[in-house]
Amino acid sequence: MSQSNTTKRNATICFLYHGNGESILKSLLEILPRKDGWSFLVVNKKSSHIDTSCKKIEQLSFDHPELDYVLLKEKAEYYLEASDYAKFVIASLDFCKTEFICFVDEGSSPFLENIDQVLQVIKKEKIAAARGNASKNNGRGEFDSDPISNDRLFVPGAGILDFGLKGMSLNGMIYNVSLLKNRKILQRFHENLKAHRDYPHFHLNILASANLPTYLSKLEFYSNKMRVEKSGPYETYFSVHSYGKRCDQLIAIRNLLFEAFLDAQKLKSGSVFDMVGFYSAYTQLCLKYFKVMVTENVDVYLNQMMSIEMLVKSFNVFAVSSIDQFPDYKFFKDSVQSQIKNAGNNLIDDFKTKNIKPPAVGFQNDSYCFFSN
What we know:
The chain is an alpha/beta fold. 45% of the residues lie in helices and 15% in strands. The longest helix has 25 residues, at 243-267.
């Protein structure tokens, strides 16, 4: 399609493909006929699970030059150290041909008018990264557990906590790709891929907020109306949700927060390291992980016959021990420990009041199934 008669937005809508291309295909069929200047990118990281819809998307890319379809090879050299999710992010940023990219998950449909409105702010203020809301009008409740109530623009160094740790998903994120490249943030992302393979957007968002302006928008960037909940409780523990993985992620993001506050210190000549900000951010990170583990992913652990109370107590000890040797911790120790402990205790009390029981069928793997009465 020629875009000579349309407004070229220099922005790409990138769909995150996880194995179900029907919803992506549906969105593309609705959007492409508009011919209104957007570029689109679909990256397939499930090359061994190519469904019929993916073949249709590939055919669409032949008919619509504004749509690129990328099928990742299993052994592409610089993807070897990455998880599937990180592979997707790296490939998307590398294959993006425009200055800006907006990520949309499969099962979600982008609100292009709202995204375009925020792009104007991003261009004017030279913003490196922006996050918007999910639609609440999806018929199945609110999927976004961390909604944005007001527009907020953060100057460099000011959004490490409130922007950098916002959300648990890449869905609805807009990045200024050229800015991230120029400030070496993408280069640092590549260099630290092993550490941030599970939640690569945390690496991008935290470092972007430390070094460049960032933005939270109350506008809805996408609708979850086509989202399909994953079926089957037995596939999710051995993934980013496992207890061991959560511990790994905490360490990786802890290190990243320290790195980000160092970056922020370097931006201001003669300034000192913001210890208060760092320990506050680490505490909030721990509370965020408590909430995710005990409220949003609790079935993952119950299905493996794990005690939620003991899990919380164990993570409490791990979180406290993981910060114990950091500089000047003795001045913040009492506050950090009490906040983490109180948050854990509150979650345990809340969990007990709900009286949630393990399922009748317990864990299983390829070799056997364990049943529990």
